[in-house]
Amino acid sequence: MIKTIQNNALFSSLSETQLRSLIEEARCLKLGQDETLFIQGDCAEHFYWLASGMIKLYRVAPSGDEKVIEIIQPGQTFAEAIMFMDQQQAGFPVSAQMIAKGEVWRFNNRQFLGLLGQSVDSCFRMMANMSQRLHQHIKEIDRLTLQTAGERVINYLLQALDQQIGNRSELKLNISKQMLAAQLSIKPETLSRTLSRLNREGLISTHGSHIKVIDTEALRQQVEI
Asked: What would be one Pfam family of this protein (predicted)?
């Protein structure tokens, strides 16, 4: 457990003794698909590390529409930034729900802050981790405000390919198309039409959740114009 969790930037600068004390007080939660971890507004006294499965962080608009903020993959931490704010009692700004069953480790904010107080290096690593997440969210805002629906879909495909190890021309969607549409802030039918258009143009081929990119350069040209 210690070796695994040390791969995360948030924990990597903590000593083995510090990590052991943190894990001893932590709780491992085994959750099923669609099970809720916390709801927007719940008291934010903990942060989390995902050991297995997948989690979506989302907000619900007054209209009832759901906006997927982020898909959390194994090895990632989440809900840690709020521990530095005076709003922990105000609650989580998002809700968290499992989209694939797995294990989540829950850590106490107050205990972790105490450990950070013992290590300047840990503080800097925490700042680097949050800065990276902030940069990702800024890019997300740019994508939602400056790109068309089609450009969002193409950029998602290109980024997913870039992040893959091994086969760089074929990918498997690990979330439903409906959830992907919510993450891209488009309607499911718009996503389907865009994928169908790219199919007709010979740029991709789709088989269920598998997408093969046939002409990467042509896709890049569509979003660079």
From this structure: cNMP_binding
Name residue 138's amino acid. I
Domain boundary among 75, 109, 142: 142
Same domain, 167 and 122: no
Domain that holds residue 206: 147-224
Contact 184, 152 (CB under 8 A): yes
pLDDT digits (tens, 9 = 90+) for 189-209: 999 999 999 999 999 999 888
- CATH number assigned to the domain comprising residue 92: 2.60.120.10
**What total of structural domains would you count in the chain?**
2
Residues 108 and 159 in one domain: no
Q: Domain check: are 157 and 120 in the same one?
A: no
Which residue, 21, 19, 17, is CA-closest to 6?
19
CA–CA dist 39, 35 (Å, integer): 11
Same domain, 35 and 128: yes
Distances in whole angstroms, Cα of residue 196 to Cα of each of 34, 164, 175, 200, 204: 29, 23, 18, 6, 9
- Amino acid (1-letter code) at residue 215: D
Give whole-number Cα distances, 33 to 17, 76, 95, 183, 211, in Å: 34, 18, 15, 18, 24
Which tokens in the block code for residue 172? Answer: 């498997």
Give me 23's structure tokens: 């894990």
Are 105 and 26 spatial neighbours (Cβ–Cβ below 8 Å)? yes
Neighbours of 211 (CB within 10 A): 20
Residue 104: pLDDT over 80: yes
What's the rounded mean pLDDT across residues 125-144?
Answer: 74
